[in-house]
Design brief:
This protein is α/β, with parallel strands linked by helices. About 35% of the residues lie in helices and about 20% in strands. The strands form two sheets. Strands 1, 4, 5, 6, 7, 8, 9, 10 and 11 form a nine-stranded mixed sheet that branches. The N and C termini lie far apart (about 80 Å).
């Protein structure tokens, strides 16, 4: 009698098994998706370019462009501007952006990212990955944020960044143009201001595939506090590149490769040149969301 009851119960359940598996698959995917926080540190006091986030590009403040373009990333669950300046905060709120005030004691953008993460954690919000988006990268592409998120989300790396193929000799030889070399799996072996890889002749070789590092980083959220408190390493001090301390300490940084990128605005002269290009419709990325108002 019991066996017959079991057979009847199984027979009744069979038609529903495909739906059950479909539900379980959806539940697992949703449960395993890592939550991602995008932070745009924005500093008012800059020696080289004071009030840079508020300088206008195509009639709108630079921070508007950075936030608007970054917020279109499908990888981000939340995107916020982190600043200690009231004027920047008011500007962000004026165009509907989200801002979190951070202390004046933050030494750099990475520390602002951690402060934002801790503030949100105290409110009960949980994030697995933090993406540090430079405030002076007004034309950051959403696909780049998606990529730098994926290299951490889909690997055992504690940190991620992006690189692109080099353009020419000047793109490689400048000490402000950081290069990287990678292993076969896309993990960084080293970052340098020198030409790497370096040949026996000690000269630039156009046939060599050089990788130019871009100014965006992603961190596993549980690694970010450790990164900030890690002591300076020999390779970090030698190159003046903070990411080298991560590799020197035995951690992994994975590098996503993108075809090209619009680099940040570092000087007032670059800002003038950029506005002229946009005015003449000669800027290559006129299709970005933040430029939709430009006729």
């Amino acid at each position: 009698m019991y066996h017959a009851a079991i057979v009847i119960a199984i027979s009744a359940a069979l038609p529903h098994i495909p739906s059950l598996f479909k539900y379980l698959k959806t539940f697992v995917v949703k449960s395993s998706k890592k939550r991602v926080l995008g932070v745009i540190p924005a500093r008012y006091a800059s020696t080289r370019f004071p009030a840079k986030p508020l300088k206008e590009i195509a009639g709108k403040p630079m921070i508007y462009h950075t936030y608007t373009n970054a917020a279109t990333s499908t990888a981000l669950d939340k995107c916020v501007v982190a600043t200690d300046n009231v004027e920047i905060a008011d500007t962000v709120r004026s165009f509907g952006g989200e801002v979190i005030m951070t202390s004046e004691g933050c030494n750099n953008g990475t520390e602002r990212c951690l402060e934002v993460l801790n503030q949100l954690k105290a409110k009960g919000e949980h994030y697995d990955i933090v993406v540090n988006i430079q405030g002076d990268e007004p034309f950051i592409e959403a696909e780049h944020i998606d990529c730098v998120t994926a290299v951490v989300a889909e690997s055992d790396a504690v940190m991620g960044t992006l690189a692109r193929p080099h353009l020419d000799k000047d793109d490689v030889t400048g000490v402000n143009n950081v290069k990287t070399v990678l292993d076969v799996n896309g993990y960084a072996l080293y970052f340098s201001r020198a030409i790497i890889p370096h040949n026996k002749k000690g000269v630039y070789d156009p046939a060599t595939p050089y990788w130019r590092k871009l100014g965006i980083y992603s961190y596993r959220a549980d690694f970010l506090p450790k990164f900030i408190t890690m002591p300076e390493s020999k390779l970090q001090k030698a190159e003046d590149l903070e990411q080298n301390k991560v590799i020197e300490a035995g951690y992994k940084i994975k590098v996503g490769i993108v075809a090209n990128a619009v680099h940040g605005v570092d000087t007032p002269e670059q800002l003038v040149e950029l506005n002229q290009l946009i005015k003449k419709k000669q800027f290559k990325h006129m299709d970005l969301p933040s430029l939709s108002h430009v006729q």
